[in-house]
């Protein structure tokens, strides 16, 4: 049983990693949370790390923390742990926590150095590229590509 008032924990927690090492996490205030509730995010990238508080909160128009921006995020092999707790003068606020495998929330950059060489002979066109940059992928064979060719 969670301590705190029902409906006071955050809702719709989600995170995404982009541009290799940046991460945004966002959430909505609990629907029954008192108006003065403020939320705080803590996270651990691996079980051996110490929990760190968000350094750059995203705030709504009332100054309430509704997200966090991270820089220099490294994707480790194990799950990262996220915890958002809250405080209010009026009542105890329930916490929310979740384990997330970071590689599953990464938005990959496009492949690099895409080139197209077309000839008139039946061979047609040769398209080449290099894998996208990522902070964690050792094996480039893990990537799958799809080419969409539209005739104009």
Automatic annotation (TrEMBL):
Q: Which organism is it from?
A: Pygoscelis adeliae (Adelie penguin)
Question: Record's Gene Ontology CC terms?
Answer: external side of plasma membrane
**What's an example of a GO molecular-function annotation for this chain?**
cytokine receptor activity
Alphabetized UniProt keyword annotations: Glycoprotein, Membrane, Receptor, Signal, Transmembrane, Transmembrane helix
Question: Can you tell which superkingdom this protein's organism belongs to?
Answer: Eukaryota
User: Which Pfam family, any one of them, does this sequence belong to?
Assistant: IL6Ra-bind
Q: Where in the cell is it found?
A: Membrane
Return the InterPro entries for the record.
FN3_sf, Ig-like_fold, Short_hematopoietin_rcpt_2_CS, TypeI_recpt_CBD
| Protein name stated in the entry | Granulocyte-macrophage colony-stimulating factor receptor subunit alpha
Keyword Transmembrane on entry: yes
Q: Does the keyword Transmembrane apply?
A: yes
Membrane topology according to the record:
Single-pass type I membrane protein
Q: Where is the Type I cytokine receptor cytokine-binding domain?
A: 12-105
